[in-house]
Give the backbone structure.
Amino acid sequence: MNFRFFSIFVFILVFQTPSSMAELSIQITQGVDDPIPIAVVPFFMDSGSVLSEDVAQIVRNDLEQVGEFRALPLSNMISLPDEEQEVFYRDWRILAQDYLLIGKINQQPGSQLIRVQYEFFDVNREIKLAGEVLTGNVTQLRDIGHTISNVVFEQVTGVPGAFTSQLLYIVSENAGPNTSLFKLEKSDYDGARPQVLLESGEPIMSPSWSPNGQDVAYVSFETGLPRIYIQNIASGQRRQITNYPNINSSPVWSPDGTKLAMVLSKDGSPDIYVQDLISNQLLRVTDHPAIDTEPSWTPDGEFLVFMSDRTGQPQIYQIALGANSFDVERLTYDCFQCAKARFLPDGVNLVHVRRETRQALYQIAILNIETLRVITLTDTSLDESPSLAPNGSMIIYATKFNGKGVLDAVSIDGRVKFRLPSTQGDVREPSWSPFLN
Amino acid sequence: MAKQQNQFLKVGTLVISLFVLGACSSTSEMEEESSSTEAAASTNSGSSSGAGNNNQLTQEQIRAQNALRQTVFYFDFDVAEFKPADRETLTYHARDLAANSSKRIRLEGHADERGTREYNLALGERRANGILNYFIVNGAARSQIEVVSYGEERPEQSGQSEQAYGRNRRVEVVAQ
């Protein structure tokens, strides 16, 4: 094999000054028609010191971003309670609010520690739904805000909030004539606090979270050839997982985290393989001269869903792990091309990229494989790389806006959309984290 | 069976490529360029040697030199086969490799941004492999050629125009 190491600069940067990073900031592009009215009162600062982040504002943004809520403007509030005995439900009923969140923050002079006490009320039933005291470092104000948002969201919708989850994505920037800079970045779910995990002059592709949220698998061309690596997110420590001839790509962790599904073309054409991360044993799953790629696991970890153009155009198939490679079941028939598919946790609804006709329009859609009903979620034309929030409520995906790569998110019912525009470079291939602790 | 088919294919492709070469042995464009590059071409030790008809050999060398100067080959949308118009040029590349066994090249396959990234990575490889196979059928050794696909990750031109897309669907022959 003609394998060469190119001297290409690859840095692992766990900590970097935020100014050089592509900060993403959220824009709501479509909300629900009847959002739930909620009043989030500014949190009272006990000690009079000024904090770098406004916790109540973080909660307000979180709740409005996912489209289900509408926060009451501060100027409309007729009282500003910061603890339960100051709450008069009538004040909030007059303002037609369903829910009320209040809180206060305490910071001892000279200390980095803060205490945030919050209380959450149902205005109509006049009861306190939740309340606790969170302590942390002043640098963790955003985490505390997102944690409170999780509680509010779950109390109201019954679904756990995903506000403390994070994103991985790829940024490509122009770095002079015919030179690009590729970065693997991690941020909060809303694009805040971006952090560069890897930087390279050669492409980086296909970031994928490990199920425990501690590692990322990705493809890097740093040797001049696409190879799969696993990197620990906290330490930055990384190891090369594959070095097979030709394409090594599309790494995806099994639900139990012990295996990595991947695409290798070492035997001629791209096929699906599974590498055991403990024994390093490689299992060939598909064997076909056409292109088989984009594997994903069914929620039970027993099947692999993949895309193949064996009939001439990309369609979605599935195969049981360990089955004969002929034992393939085709899942899509009604699209010109269907690609990059992944089941929702229900194992019935399949998120995918759909090109309905010959016309080159690519959109994110959900196919119910039992009823065969298709819901197209997006109305842009170059949508790809859908990735599901850990609570199953939203899908983040990459698209183009004003000629630039941006990340958009859409709720799985298609009602809510928001966008994370990048201030620099092309952003793509988002991967939404599992629940993180 | 597979081997037989392969050999049949090999002979067939050779016959076709020779035919194509014969059919367009003299185009006016190449004739025009020939006088200006003649001197340079004759000093270069090309693949063909011998003292038969000096003039004709030189013409052929010039044609080869011009062909080798083209190192980027563009593809149609959703198509993995190279364009028939590039066949002659690619034949010269193959012969050049066959005649210079120490020469190493890298075939870099690319796709435009439409369609999913992983599929485009595979499509770029399929395009490069098409040219790889053509080179081998025309005398190049497998060991002389490395194939790498960049999919849609390294566009030649950014933007969403048909023109940009056309420039991004390509295979580049890169000397090593």
Notes: Helices of chain A lie at 55-65, 89-94, 141-157. Confidence is low (pLDDT under 50) at residues 1-21 of chain A.
